[in-house]
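We now fix the convention by which a protein and its fold are recorded. Think of the row as the fold of the chain written in a discrete alphabet. Here is one such record, which you should read through line by line.
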Amino acid sequence: MAKTSLMVKAMRTPKFKVRQHNRCPLCGRSRGYYRRFNMCRICLRKLALKGELPGVIKASW
């Protein structure tokens, strides 16, 4: 879990647009963020394995 202060800071609009930083809305993680799903890789994996993300299945080959 990320620091609450960093999560609040990321939600504010920055002084300059390039300073914007993506964070996972579920856990607040800043690294391993997927724009397509709007969450980090860890939360994506958890929800995909539970079957809560439509169209996402575990790959097997």
Remarks:
- The chain has a mean pLDDT of 88.
- Strands lie at 33-34, 39-40.
- Residues 6 and 45 are 23 Å apart (CA to CA).
- The domain at 1-11+23-52 is CATH 4.10.830.10 (30s Ribosomal Protein S14; Chain N).
